[in-house]
Amino acid sequence: MANESRPCPCDIGDRFDYGGRGQEVQVGHIKAYVCKPSASTDKAVIVIHDIFGWQLPNTRYIADMLATNGYIAICPDFFVGQEAWKPSNDWASFNDWVKTRDAGKTDKEVDVVLKYLKDQCGAKEIGVIGFCWGGAAVQHLMLKNPHLKTGVSLYGVISHFEDKHSLLHPTFFIFGEKDNIIPLEQVTLLEQKLKQNCKVDYEVKIYPGQTHGFVHRKREDINPQDKPYIEEGRKDMINWLNKYL
């Protein structure tokens, strides 16, 4: 399990032994991992990685799961060649590190990926999901990008956009009850602000007993009591995408 005193215990899952079914491609100025379903489709999902970057096996596992469920899934390198965080890095330097990787400045990359999905993959309806850092990026995109249909933010860092709640598209927020970097008070406040300001469909769901990173946690850490919530989180994510794409 992660050391819960760390500022961002996303390293749950860093050693997931998974090779991936898709392929790496060059998309404009960035690299991306793409996995396509067996049947042709015009529906796609952009997967936004956490601090461990676009090559984390756990994130690719989720991208492949989306493809198995009928979506073109693409996980671009939103750090644009900058190094992803490593579990061996000094956590004392984390705040300085993350300042150079702003979840609110993903627009240029998203535009390039949208063009690729439309021109090269025939995608017409496109959604987005993201984990932790990527979950914050999802909230940012749901506030401003008119070309995305829906989003799922998984334990997205609320404090990045705590004063912005006028979502353009239906958005599903997934949180763990025991997430020590996203306190439940922040989640409650998010719900209140959405209720006051949001004119589109949204849902905020808290999963009992779950810590940060639970939906894409590595297999060894799936405790018997956690497994139903991990599976429920993944199923809820797919159901939301199915509803709005």
Automatic annotation (TrEMBL):
CC terms in the record's Gene Ontology section: cytosol
UniProt keyword annotations, A-Z: Cytoplasm
InterPro entries documented for this protein: AB_hydrolase_fold, CMBL, Dienelactn_hydro
GO molecular function: hydrolase activity
Major subcellular location class: cytoplasm
Subcellular location: Cytoplasm, Cytosol
Superkingdom field: Eukaryota
Gene3D superfamilies from the UniProt entry: alpha/beta hydrolase
ATP-binding in keyword set: no
Keyword Cytoplasm applies: yes
Dienelactone hydrolase domain span: 30-245
Family per record: Belongs to the dienelactone hydrolase family.
Name of protein: Carboxymethylenebutenolidase homolog
Classification of source organism: Eukaryota, Metazoa, Chordata, Craniata, Vertebrata
